[in-house]
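Below is the record:
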Amino acid sequence: MSGDIHARLAALPAFPTLTGARVRLREPRTDDVDGVFALFGDPTAMRYWSSAPMRSRMQAEGRLEDMQAAFARGEALDWIIADRRSDRAMGTCTLFRFDARHRRAEVGYALGTAHWGKGLASEAVSLALDWSFRTLGLHRVEADIDPRNEPSRRLLLRLGFRSEGLMRERFFVGGEATDSELFGLLAQEWRRPVR
């Protein structure tokens, strides 16, 4: 499938909502501020993130504004991972760094610690991947994680990503230099997991 990714994003009639068995990926809203702050302010959830935990609710408000603005500019799709029944924010799943020429993007995700170990991140990322290959016509999706984050590593491998190398001391987080491991998934390798 060919075509300009940015044109496809611009042609979307609205922020896409993706629904799975237990989660829904939806547009960020101002009433998500407490959920976003609970997630990005939690040192445990942010242990392997590329920035320090948030310290104020105002930072969460700014993050939500940035998420909405990035979509308006066609630069990113920052979904809120919401519980399908309650619609309560549990995390985020993001497609970003779109490269139209090479038909690729990056995926990132974060989930509140109360929801770890239940397969919810896998379900959310699967929805985003399926949509990105089908709707945007991406050829490749990349992810980079802190290699010490074993649960995230297992999630990517389970979804079909391949580890493609280690970038040493790529980020400084709280004064500590951390490594980054790059993963890649090609469209022809994607097979949506059976639920």
Q: What stands out?
A: The mean pLDDT is 93. The first helix runs from residue 5 to 10. The first strand starts at residue 18 and ends at 19. Residues 71 and 77 are 6 Å apart (CA to CA).
